[in-house]
Amino acid sequence: MSAGASGSPPTRQDWTSQRAFIVSSVAAAVGLGNLWRFPYMVGENGGGTFILCYLICILAVGLPLFVLETTAGSLTEWGPVGTFRRVSGRWGPWFGWFVVALAVVVMSYYFVITGWTLGYLVDSVRGDLRPFDEMTDGFASLWYFVAVGGLVFLVLRRGTGGIERLSKVLMPTLVLMVALLAIYSQTLAGGAEALAFYTSFDLAQFLEPQTWRMAAGQAFFSLGVGTGVLITYGSYIPRNVNIIASSTAVAVTNAAISLTAGVAIFSIVFTFGIAPDSGSQLSFTAFPQVFGDLAGGRVLAPFFFGALFVAAFSSCYSTLAVATAPLRYERGFSESTAALIAVGATLLLGVPSALSFTSVELSFGGRPLLEWVDQLTGSGVGIVVGIGGAALIAWRLPRGALVAEMASAWWRSGPQRLLLHGAIELGRYMPAATVGLLIATALL
């Protein structure tokens, strides 16, 4: 009998402390969503106007749903499939498996971009940084994509303990490199122009629903809302962890790294005359040029691309843990077999995205297929699943149990008490509010 059929939560290794949970959750949330996707979303959607909408979405929606999903995992001690089975024994598991499938689809193109960071890391170590088109010439993008899959498989075989130990080393390295790069970028000629772009505001764009949809999608994408990551990580939380405090620390750190990385990237963009709305290639067009043209770039490049690969890779293995957990605990597969199935499915689905940046140039609707899949999932399906999943958790799991699980009694006062109940109310009524807003904007 599978673990799922038994009705009792699986025996699993908890995070060793609240600090370990925060560090590992930051490692899961912080990655290319901050260093690759955030800059190109800012560039395409109005600079400072988009940033303001993004910050509002992080605080008003992203953080409460982060708390709610993490609490659900902690309460049920299951991943997304087992958690939504508690919501409904009949159709809940189907929704849970859909969340798992979404995580795999997101990783199918995320692996491709992680492969680019690996390619530039290799090039920087060799001292031969090439423009993006040359780096991805032929089928290099495809081979790096496959290499990333192999590395993720090796990490997943080690289980949660391996993730926790690796995160303790990777996250300080990432934060340090992003901070140093941001400081260094302010010595460039485009630093002032980048800050002006960052603080610009356009009221018409602020009132545009498309700006808010993209901002909400970025907030959900960067925090991992709707992908099952938070439920899976929440299921490993020991009883002495304050979910409210931990979630706030993760969300604030996540947003700070995004903003800091953006300052660095746009300083490079404006220094070398790159169009801010260049799209998904923005970061990978800017970085090789600055390291190739500036004094000391050959020394700095391996450190930077090493940190960029760290950011991307940490998100790869933590998100795919969403798929391996139900394969192990719901279907009874061994750790190695579950990792092989999850990575294999990701690689199979990701080949078309990888081919879109090879000599094949696979595209859809005039855009590289990778960008189309990113927009469909990151700013479309992901928002719907995140909002829908939060509603199911908030309505179907006992309110008292959720509140009790979120934080110790000592913390149930002031702002934290407001967030305790606010997260549940937001989860319950956000679907109706979203539908109403869509109808109102369509009629106006």
Describe this structure in words.
The chain is mostly helical. The chain has one domain: Hydantoin permease (Orthogonal Bundle), CATH 1.10.4160. The chain has helices at residues 3-6, 18-29, 32-44, 48-76, 80-87, 92-126, 132-135, 140-156, 159-185, 191-198, 203-206, 209-223, 229-234, 243-271, 282-293, 297-329, 335-355, 369-396, 399-406, 414-443; strands spanning 363-364, 367-368. Strands 1-2 form a two-stranded antiparallel ribbon. A hairpin with a 2-residue loop joins strand 1 (363-364) and strand 2. Helix 8 runs antiparallel to helix 17 (335-355). The longest helix has 35 residues, at 92-126.
| CATH architecture group name | Orthogonal Bundle
What is the molecular shape? globular
CATH superfamily, by name, is Hydantoin permease
- Helical fraction equals over 70%
Name the helix and strand elements from N-terminus to C-terminus, one letter apiece. HHHHHHHHHHHHHHHHHEEHHH
Largest beta sheet, briefly? 2 strands, antiparallel
**Strand order of the main beta sheet, please?**
1-2
Radius of gyration: 21 Å
User: How many domains, in number, for the residues?
Assistant: 1
Annotation, overall tally of beta strands:
2
Cα separation of the termini: 55 Å
Structural class, judged by helices and strands?
mainly alpha
Parts with pLDDT < 50 across at least 5 consecutive residues? 1-6, 409-413
Number of helices: 20
Fold-level CATH name: Hydantoin permease
**Residue share in β-strands:** under 5%
CATH domain class name: Mainly Alpha
